[in-house]
Amino acid sequence: MRRPFVAGNWKMNTTLAGGQQLAAAIAAEVGSSTTVDVAVCPPFPYLTAVKQSLGSSSVGLGAQNAYFAKSGAFTGEVAVGMLKEIGCNWVVLGHSERRQFFGDTDELINKKINAVLAEELGVIFCVGELLAERQSNQTEAVLDKQLTGGLAGIDAAHMAKIVIAYEPVWAIGTGVTASPAQAESAHLFIRQWLAKRYNQGVADGVRIQYGGSVKADNAQELLSQPNVDGALVGGASLTAEQFLPIIRAAVQVAGSK
Ligand code: PEP
């Protein structure tokens, strides 16, 4: 059974104090429970403080990006080793905003994934199609290209450290959510892709999160889909009032799937 995984991507939001309060509220809710994996991904400058606010809870800490080199003259970049040193467990890679605004290509994402795996941290690897690509029936071709490029050269053993987030770009931050059927269909495609590229064991083990306007009122239905193993949440991860019900929905689903 795949343990549901709910992660909050705070993007370039919150203040230091607000982030600490939010993290403390999530930690208080989750405590040491491991029914569902929960992680928060604050902006880089807040990682250390948020880590402290998470205390001894089981809530994981994720970074929203990393660079592939270990160190050197890369102004403005952050190495995976640095993230590991301050207690990060996860790195989000391939987010559509990185692809769209910062030129992250499949090849670059692949190098970053390898760098994260080399430090033995977990990867949340985002894939997903644009609206025009969905409308022209390119969804599966786009997912195939992103998965093939992002996971190039990565062997089956390393897939244990990778979570895939299916995030249709047209649903991110728009308030438009993929229907449960649309999400399930894309997740099933990804799982079948993993079975072909690796083997059934890898396909059965890799968690596939859905991301795109997940909210308290749609989480349960999305998370109940057989191949939806959690959520990567943007906007609704920014307040405890909105994020905690999503965690609770995942806990309920974990008990019934
Ligand atoms: C995201 O950016 O990963 C995301 C899913 O955002 P939102 O939940 O705001 O659509």
Note the main attributes of this structure.
alpha/beta, TIM Barrel, eight-stranded parallel beta barrel, 11 helices, 45% helix, binds phosphoenolpyruvate
What does this molecule look like?
- With 257 residues, this protein is an alpha/beta fold.
- The protein has one domain (9-17, 35-254): Aldolase class I (TIM Barrel), CATH 3.20.20.
- Helices cover 45% and strands 14% of the residues.
- The chain contains eleven helices and eight strands.
- An eight-stranded parallel beta barrel has the order 1-2-3-4-5-6-7-8, surrounded by six helices.
- Helix 1 (16-30) packs parallel to helix 2 (47-54), helix 1 packs parallel to helix 11 and helix 10 packs parallel to helix 11.
- The protein is globular, with a radius of gyration of 17 Å.
- The structure holds phosphoenolpyruvate.
- Phosphoenolpyruvate binds next to strand 8.
